């Protein structure tokens, strides 16, 4: 069975600080895919990134970066120079399919609050 | 505009009164799913569909029904709602080449 653990329930940081959201996963599949979604206060779910298990290269997109380490089964998300607009609930998810078409297994989410 | 539309967005109902939450997508996606979001539990899959007339249970299907008679629609049916089905519900759609695209969510309260 697949499982995703986001141990940080809530995090608060002051604006412009860097923050890392942790994600640890469990799966028996050798091929799997990891995702991050953002849920802003308006409630919708916004796709941020997808990573497959064969690609351990870190990824950077603007102020966002992702660190994937198979050795520790982690897929952590870092926001540098945080902004108030980053305040949201962030979900890490896991799937055995490339795009999570049939099923996404979500973590419990981390509520991030950026204090102005 | 590509979108997944859920209706209603908010609903308060009473125990035992049948209800349907509709989900419609305009992207011709084959795959559709329903998830529920609860505090401390994240999102859990209720049902999913791989195409018309093909549906399967997710992790928490008890108390729910679905149908997929048309490609664009995937309604979620609660035949006899109970308070433990109070939740935030999301519909999602995708193709084999795209990530799941989620609707705006439906907040259901069963009293």
Low-confidence stretches of chain B: none
Uncertain segments of chain A are none
Distance between the termini of chain B: 36 Å
Radius of gyration of chain B: 13 Å
What characteristic shape of chain B results from the CA principal axes?
Answer: globular
Order of helices and strands of chain A: EEEEEEEEEEEE
Oligomerization state: heterodimer
Spatial extent as radius of gyration of chain A: 14 Å
What string gives the helices and strands of chain B in order?
EEEEEEEEEEE
Would you kindly provide a written description of the structure presented here, covering whatever features stand out?
The complex is a heterodimer of chains A (116) and B (111). Chain A has 116 residues and is mainly β. Chain A is 0% helix and 51% strand. Chain A contains no helices and 12 strands. Chain A has strands at 3-5, 10-14, 19-21, 24-26, 33-39, 46-52, 59-61, 64-69, 74-79, 88-95, 105-106, 110-115. In chain A, the strands form 3 sheets. In chain A, strands 2, 5, 6, 10, 11 and 12 form a 6-stranded mixed beta sheet that branches. In chain A, strand 5 (33-39) and strand 6 (46-52) form a beta hairpin. The model of chain A has no long low-confidence stretch (mean pLDDT 95). Chain B has 111 residues and is mainly beta. In chain B, strands 2, 4, 5, 6, 9, 10 and 11 form a 7-stranded mixed beta sheet that branches. A 4-stranded antiparallel beta sheet of chain B has the order 1-3-8-7, with no helix packed on it. Chain B is globular and about 40 Å long. The mean pLDDT of chain B is 96. The A-B interface holds A 4, 6, 9, 35, 43-45, 47, 50, 91, 93, 98-104, 106-109 and B 30-31, 33, 35, 40-45, 48, 50, 56, 58, 88, 90, 94-105.
